[in-house]
Every structure is written in structure tokens, then in C-alpha cells.
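Suppose you are handed a protein chain with no further information: no name, no annotation, nothing but its sequence. What can you learn? This example shows the usual starting point.
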Amino acid sequence: MSLLRTLLSLLALGLPVAGAPLRVLAIGDSMTEEYAFELPFSAPASNPTNANARNWPELFRIFRPTEVTLGPYQSTPGSYLDLRTAGHPWNFGIPGTTLVNWRNLLYNTPSEEDDDDLAWGYGLTRSALQDEIFYAQAVVILLGANDLKKAYNDLFNDTENTGIPPGKPAYFENLIAKLNDIHAWVRILRPNVPIVVCTVPDVGATPQISGIYNVPAQQLTTRAKIAAFNQSILAWAAGKSRPPAIARLDLLTDRIFDQVPFHLNGTVFTLSGSEENPPLQVFCRDGFHVSTVGQALIANTIMAALESATGRDLTLFSNREILQNLLGQDPDQPYLDWIAAAGFPGSGMNDDPDSDGFSNLTEYLLDSPPGTFGRPLSGSFAPGKSLSFRPSATGLRFGSVSAEESSDLSSWLPVPAGRTTVATDGTVSVTPAAGGRGFARLRSSANP
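A reasonable first move is to predict its three-dimensional structure. Written in C-alpha cells, the prediction is:
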């Protein structure tokens, strides 16, 4: 048998090929379809036919081609005869679809809840999916955001269960039932394939939704409902005989809600605002779909779940890689801006222009002027006493600073947690071990 035929036979059987990337099939919506075909929101207003934002399947293809694949890329629109436009053959990201749509598509049970623009392609898409799923070594299910978007007015006004007949599942229970049916369909065809199920992003974090539904008390109660729904997904998964791995996308929207300002290693992002989809904007210009930075974080979350499900070692995107390689930014920009404002443009992180024994990076992390000789410490590292320093909250976005100790100024180890305390204002205090002579120093590093 030729090598090509051997490879094709292994693929058809769903068996791994040594050194080959993990073959992933995705069932999803517009968060999963390649952004190259998600015009116009994924492109700048000045060039609306050329997407400048990328989503997680595209990031896998561009930056992790030897580790993960959704199949050979087709760039020509109309490459598929089903609901897909083009893209990867194992990517069934269908814009506008809900859990209800996908359940009806897979089980051939169209209903009045289906959009006519979608229902025409249910059979063709199901047939293609049935063919392609046997190539997959893992399946990712990423759905639910459109369900929440459609129901958000009711969720916000606490009317999501209005009109549901007695004995019928409540709104969120119905979504879980649909998710269960989709998972079961995959399991019937592929009883042993690893499955990743994504929790549902809270669409209330998007500028498109929050700009309309902006009563704080109702925002909180709606957020609590969606959080409880995601907890029910975790409970549902745990109850399976072969539990799917979970990708916690809801934690990403929690971060958008709670991290003010949103940043990576101190590089600050705006949520939205520009029609040009600039790299330091969390959402695309429609205010609903996350831009490249958000998709990179989604990719990380999915890769971590794939690692758990398959045992593969996958390389997650570090913050520095996201900033530099995906977004074209200098990951050291927060430091560079600070050192320039201090009057020492171009001075390196390890430099010490004031010769006080503290590097520029340490001075940045402690909010200490790099051009003024000083000692940004208090106390002493002596028996019965403590040495204290107070890191800058802004500086800690960019790097870390910690205390190390030595008895001989040669071998250095971190001061153990048992002899380290952190006050409510962030001040860190360290004490020496009992007896003997001790020395302490600070170690600083930029975040990866």
C-alpha cells in the first residue's frame, strides 16, 4: 500500500498519524465561522471586504498549524454546497444558528423557530457533517450566544418563562436539553471521540447589549441568571458517563465585566468605539463579536480543554505572543512609555541610571523614580524585623516582583509563603528565618 493510501486509510478510521496535528471538528455559530467570511463586521469600514480580525480556527491555522487543524483551508466562497461559505472542511460554524437550530438540523425536525434562510440547508449540512465527523480526533461544540441574544430582553425583564405551558421545561432547562441532544448526536456517531463543550459567553458584556440594557440592578440579576445557567452546564457535563471537557468561555466575559481597564500585561484595550477594528479593541465594530484579542483568549480556553480531553500538549498563546505576533504591538510598550516619561527614553529594563541598586524594571514595578537615587524599601531583613515593599498595581499588570533570600550571597531562593505577608494596601513584608545571618533581594521580571 502506498504512503498516501496508508495516510488516507488512517484518516478514514479516525486513527492518529504520528507527528500530525490534532484533527478538530467544530459545531458552532458566527463565533466559529472564519472571520474572513464574516463581513462586514470583521473588516474595517474603510476596507469592508478585507477582514482584519481573526477568529480561533484562523488563529490555529496561521499560528499553530503543526498542532491543531480543522482541515485544508478553502478560500473561495461557495466551496461548500451547504450552509457554510468556505473555510475549513471540519469547521461547521454557521452564523445565526442557535442551540435550537442545531438540534433541529441534526435530528431533521425543523420547526417554526427556524429561520427560512437556514432551514433550506439543514439536510445538506447534516450530510456533510456526517461525512466529515469521522476524520475528527476531537469535537468542539460552541453554541448558545445567539440563544441568549435573542432572549436577552426577556432575561433582563425577568419574563423569559412567560407563556411556557405548565409541565414544559423552563427557558434555561430547554437550552440544556438542546445541548444534550447535540452532544448525544455526536456520541451516537462517534462513541469514543473526545468532546469539548464550551460554556456560553454572557452577551450582556458586549457593548451592543450593554448599551441598551443598562439598568445596573437588572444587569446584575441577568448576569447572575446566565452564571447559574453556565453552572448547570458544568453539572450536566459531570453527570455524563464520559464527561465532555469544558471550555469556560463564560470566564472570559466575566473578565470583560470585571477587569477595568481590560488589559494584557498592562497594554490597555478599549471595548469598542472605532469602525476600523483597531488591534487594541476588544470587540469588532458591530459591538457584539469579539476581535482578535478575544478570539485568542477563546483559542487558549479551547486548547486547554482539548489538552484535557485528548492528552495532547498544545501551545497556548502567551500575552506577549498575542500582543506582538497577533496584534502587531510592542509587548513592552507600558514600560517604554513609563521610562520615556521619566526622562530616560530607550533605557533598558536591567539598566540602573541612578545607580541605587534597583533596576529600571524594579523601579517601575514599585512606582519608584528611575532617575532619583533611593531605596523603595522599608524596615530590614533582620531577626525580629521585616523588610517591606509595595508594588504598584499598575506595574503588576506588566510584571512581577518578589523577595529572595540567601545565607551566603551565592545561592538564592524565594522567601517562603509562611514568612511573607501581604497587607490590604498591597504592601509585601518578608521576615528572615530564625537564627543565623540572612540576606534578601528583589527579583523582577516582565510577564510572559
